[in-house]
Amino acid sequence: MTTIVIPTSTSVTESAVINAPLSTVWHLIKLNSFPEWWSALQSSESVKGVSDETDVYKWTFKDGTVVEIKQEAHSAIDHYITYSAISSNPATTYSSVISTVRLFPITSGQHQSSTFVQWSANFSGDADAGVIQDARYKRQEGLADLARKVGK
């Protein structure tokens, strides 16, 4: 039996305008702070002994999935964090993913003093359409959670 593979984009980007100043939102965009606002996450714990030069966190999701996340880049000047998943239990159906959360201050117009947040993911070529749709949904949910957190 032949399996039909449907070609799909291996990247996803979701964005939202968050009704809070960039300084308020940026404070929450750290790997250990994601559970403070993302309802899918139960906890984030620093993994010690991996490397003195690398930040690795164990994210435990509420569904029981445990993913080790490695911080690849972080800029307090350009307001972004990039991270990759280095292991997952249960295992993923794709080889790799790298994600970036990037913030931009909105400086004029009706959303002045708000923050534009963009959350992207780039998957390896073996990610299928279901993985991409799931990533899209999780980012939409996460951005809505972030908006609720800073809206209080």
Automatic annotation (TrEMBL):
InterPro entries: Polyketide_cyclase/dehydratase (IPR019587), START-like_dom_sf (IPR023393). SUPFAM superfamilies: Bet v1-like (SSF55961). It comes from Arthrobotrys oligospora (strain ATCC 24927 / CBS 115.81 / DSM 1491). Pfam families: Polyketide_cyc2. This is Bet v I/Major latex protein domain-containing protein.
